[in-house]
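PROTEIN SPECIFICATION:
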Amino acid sequence: MADFFSRLRVRRSVLKRTTKRKDLPPAVLYLEWLSGENSRRVMGPDGQAHVFTDDLLQSHFKLVSNTEAQRLIEAHWQKEIAPTQEPVRKEG
């Protein structure tokens, strides 16, 4: 269990639903850990935020590969990803 959650990265990890429960989104972007509640805040492809317990996430979702995560992020959550910082030094 600890390994599953230790691999999650804020706004970079995507979890895909592995069960047929239609009340859960097909994929979610990991947003934050809610300390003291054993819960995580995630965002579905429709932009709606959800709070799921650790047990629910571990039972119904799996972490997708980096390539698939990048594809899903670009398709659904591009505006959620913070823009990269401009370089401090200017070339030239």
